[in-house]
Design a protein that fits this description.
heterodimer, A: alpha+beta, two-stranded antiparallel sheet, 5 helices, B: alpha+beta, about 60% helix, membrane (chain A)
Chain lengths: ~150, ~750
């Protein structure tokens, strides 16, 4: 995977993850082109399209569009499953996730993504493991924060 | 606004801004505050400030002044600060920034941190934005972590190694031994990472390929376990156990089995098992099957397996899910392009699918043009054995795509002149050239590079098909009809067409002979109807499946309903009678022997029996020529004469043909007929054959008019002629009060 973008119907970006080094200008160009192309698609259209040398897979979940740029050997159908998994993980973490959750807690959305995908590839295929890791990391953060607030010495 | 407002509050304020300007103002104030905060020494709200900055960055505002803050936060000992610091690094820094080098040391330290969470942050960041230098620096650390006892770390280290190998392929050697041992892990996350790492190593270095081929049995075993394992809540997706891992393994097997018989053999059984046992009702299963098909087609698989793969693609074409249908079409396209032989061997299956699914493929193909292109491509590569129904289907598709007629005929013409082996392609091409030849001759077409095509070129192409020994009788029939249709679509070479048609009047092939004879008649006695008969065809209605339209080139025969069929039917009977006669004569003589003698039209023939048959045939044909219907001259002036002929009359309709001829020394140009009828009569004027009447009776212009009425007695017509003769524009009017009765009413 080259990139993963989340944006809403008005074209507002909610999350961007890049797995290849690109300049800010290039990133912005891709973002605007993706937004335009995907938002212009009719609702019944296929989830796949060809853009430059990449395969684009996108899916709409409520008010958000999840959009990935894939390389030639990547499996598009599997990527649909990947997006589904990510949404399920967000849902499990936030409880009935909606766009607002991702706006106000974008850092958590990134942390979950970083537990799921690394370097453009999936790192954990088990839902349960992933949820557990997030819990542990959050718990770890809280304990350390607590400790820092109330040092025993 | 207090500078230490928390992230949520700031977001709320920004979202509350009613205009872009207001938002910009808020953000500018916030950024100023954040910058001030960054400059301050140690303060508790650092992570919040960076988080705020990252939000602002996502909205599209500049945030480069946060880069150093990221570096500082990463170096902090607080986990919460590290967490946001690393996130910031991934968002604001990339390998092109100088600041990224500064975090190398922090990453190195954190890779050996006591907490796995901190290690994970470092690994993730390195895999996300690690530059080549950083990778080189930290590769040994990663290699060490691959051997760690913690699966959480191992799986992340594996993907980090993947990133390193992508950046610096030579470092791959460092990871090869560990990668191998990782395959024996039970943890799916680690396995997944290991498979990806091995895939990457094999893709970069053929030596690795050789080495990892030995792992094929191990991979096969892992796959088997996945496929046959029972339900596991952890990994199950829609009935498939860990489809992500399955797909990656299949992809690796593809690379290992490519161009290698031994490896391919070892995976044959597994691939068959996966292909048959995987439930494709949901996307997960389809994803696995898709990858399986790609693998089967790419390795040295046995033919049974390839048939299985093509069948799967065929089933995908039938799927309700349009994404799956899209996948199957793109795969079929790829297969046709790269694996000619597989296509040739399984053409029947593929084309069956294309044929059956024409409707859904059309409904959902990205565009009509794409659809036509795809089918053309299949015809070009595998069309030699395409089913007959594909030809009428494609023709129907083409007629429906009216804006693409020009593009299609150009494409088909080019395909025809390059190769006439594929009969179905030849047939479709001939049909299109006959039908849309005028578009072809115009030369320009938007979507294709322009190519000047002359009438001679087109006729040459069609005659080549007609004469080639590679052409089947059906194709030659198509070509002959196409040549005939062109007689109304071209201007200069009508004589050439006339001669071709008359030559084939004595062709060996009975079908061609019949066509040629009829077309000849169309030139001679029925020239006035030729324009109407050979008009552009309307869009063909889709037939229900099972009902074959037969040879679509026969349709023009159905077009001119009225006078011809009578003659046509009668001509066919003698052919049947010939067969009967042949039966009577003893069927040791196959009909072909007899028809050989038909090359000579002269009644004198050496073989008396066959000459009898031949005579009979000719006699029957001769006897059937109908006397021409009487034509009445309705207008005569200055060398221009207009004749009227009624060709069919029922109680409520008449077909009237006007023939205009010119006996002056010079051509009459711009000839145009207009007709008016009483209110109780309905009038339909067909296209005239032209508007130029050659001088000295060398040619005529004909136009057919259909009249329908309730009462024949009321039938009257007023005709206005406009034309230019010898430089003067003229207009004349003629009233027609009575119509001659046709020959056989």
């Amino acid at each position: 995977m080259r990139f993963l973008l989340l944006f809403n119907r008005q074209g507002r970006l909610r999350l961007q993850k890049w797995f290849i080094p690109l300049s800010n200008r290039e990133k912005n160009k891709i973002i605007s082109e993706m937004t335009l192309t995907v938002l212009a698609r009719p609702p019944k259209a296929c989830s796949f399209l060809q853009w430059r040398d990449l395969k684009i897979v996108y899916r709409r979940y409520a008010s958000l569009f999840f959009c990935c740029g894939l390389e030639d050997q990547d499996n598009e159908l599997l990527t649909l499953e990947l997006l589904q998994r990510y949404v399920e993980l967000l849902d499990q973490y936030f409880g009935n996730v909606c766009e607002l959750d991702i706006i106000f807690n974008f850092d958590k959305a990134y942390f979950i993504l970083d537990e799921f995908i690394m370097g453009g590839e999936i790192q954990e295929t088990s839902r349960l493991c992933l949820a557990r890791h997030m819990e542990e990391a959050d718990a770890f953060q809280e304990t350390v924060d607590e400790y820092e607030k109330n040092p025993t010495y | 606004m207090s500078p230490s407002v928390c992230l949520q509050e700031m977001i709320r304020v920004i979202r509350g801004a009613r205009t872009q300007g207001e938002e910009r103002g808020v953000i500018q104030r916030e950024c100023a505050a954040i910058r001030a905060q960054f400059r301050q020494a140690d303060n508790g709200g650092r992570s919040h400030n960076l988080a705020k900055l990252l939000y602002v960055h996502m909205l599209g505002y500049p945030a480069h002044f946060g880069q150093m803050e990221c570096v500082r936060l990463i170096a902090s000992s607080k986990y919460s600060e590290k967490r946001i610091g690393y996130l910031g690094a991934m968002m604001l820094l990339d390998e092109k920034q100088d600041a990224s080098l500064l975090i190398t040391n922090s990453i190195k330290n954190d890779l050996s941190h006591s907490s796995q969470h901190v290690q994970s942050l470092a690994l993730c960041t390195l895999a996300c934005m690690g530059s080549a230098e950083m990778c080189r620096d930290l590769a040994p650390e990663i290699e060490r972590l691959l051997k760690a006892s913690n699966s959480y770390i191992k799986k992340k280290a594996a993907l980090c190694a993947v990133h390193i190998v992508r950046k610096i392929p030579e470092l791959g050697e460092m990871f090869t031994p560990s990668a191998h041992s990782l395959l024996s892990e039970k943890n799916h996350g680690v396995l997944h990472g290991a498979v990806i790492l091995i895939t990457e190593l094999c893709e970069r270095n053929p030596d690795n390929l050789k080495q990892f081929r030995k792992s094929v049995p191990e991979l096969v075993q892992i796959m088997k376990n996945l496929v046959t394992s029972g339900y596991s809540p952890e990994h199950n997706v829609a009935g498939i156990s860990d489809p992500f891992l399955q797909v990656r393994i299949l992809r690796l097997l593809r690379i290992l089995g490519r161009n290698n018989d031994a490896a391919s053999d070892a995976m044959n059984d597994l691939l068959a098992q996966v292909a048959t046992n995987t439930d494709s009702s949901k996307t997960a299963g389809s994803a696995v099957l898709y990858e399986t098909v790609l693998t089967i087609m790419d390795i040295r698989s046995e033919s049974g397996l390839r048939v299985l793969a093509v069948n799967i693609l065929g089933r995908f074409l039938l799927n309700n899910d349009r994404n799956i249908r899209y996948i199957s079409m793109t795969s079929l396209q790829k297969i046709v392009q790269t694996d000619h032989t597989a296509v040739q061997r399984h053409r029947g299956t593929i084309v069956d699918c294309l044929k059956d699914q024409d409707a859904s493929v059309k409904r959902y193909a990205p565009s009509q043009r794409w659809h036509i292109d795809t089918i053309l491509h299949v015809l070009v590569t595998a069309g030699g054995d395409v089913r007959d129904e594909t030809v009428p289907n494609l023709i129907q598709l083409i007629t429906a795509a009216s804006e693409l007629h020009c593009y299609t005929v150009h494409k088909l013409y080019r395909a025809l002149i390059s190769d006439i082996v594929q009969q179905s392609l030849v047939q479709v091409a001939c049909w299109c050239i006959g039908e849309y030849g005028d578009l072809l001759l115009k030369g320009e077409c938007e979507e294709i590079t322009p190519m000047q095509v002359t009438e001679d070129d087109v006729l040459d192409a069609l005659e080549t098909v007609l004469q080639s020994h590679m052409s089947t009788p059906t194709s030659r029939g198509f070509a002959l009809t196409a040549i005939m249709k062109l007689s109304t679509r071209i201007t200069n070479n009508v004589d050439r067409i006339r001669s071709v048609v008359s030559i084939y009047g004595s062709c060996i092939d009975v079908e061609l002979q019949q066509r040629a004879v009829e077309y000849n008649a169309l030139f001679k006695k029925y020239d006035h109807m030729r324009a109407a008969v050979l008009e552009r065809m309307p869009v063909i209605d889709r037939n229900s499946s099972g009902q074959t339209n037969g040879d679509p080139s026969v349709e023009p025969m159905k077009e001119f309903n009225q006078p011809k069929p009578v003659q046509g039917v009668l001509i066919q009977e003698p052919a049947n009678q010939v067969c009967d006669l042949l039966d009577l004569l003893g069927d040791s003589n196959p009909p072909l022997l007899v028809t050989n003698d038909h090359t000579s039209t002269a009644p004198n023939s050496t073989n008396s029996t066959s000459s009898n048959v031949q005579d009979n045939l000719l006699d029957l044909l001769g006897g059937l020529e109908p006397t021409p219907a009487p034509s009445v001259t309705v207008f005569e002036k200055g060398g221009l004469s207009l004749k009227l002929q009624c060709d069919q009359q029922t109680e409520t309709s008449t077909t009237v043909t006007f023939t205009a001829s010119n006996s002056t020394q010079s051509d009459i140009t711009g000839f145009n007929l207009q007709a008016a009828v009483p209110k109780s009569v309905q009038l339909q004027m067909k296209a005239p054959s032209g508007d130029l009447i050659p001088a000295q009776g060398c040619g005529t212009v004909t136009q057919t008019v259909l009249l329908s009425y309730t009462n024949k007695a009321n039938l009257k017509m007023r005709v206005r002629l406009s034309y230019s003769s010898q430089g003067t524009a003229c207009q004349d009017m003629v009233q027609i009060d009575s119509f001659p009765s046709p020959a056989w009413s």
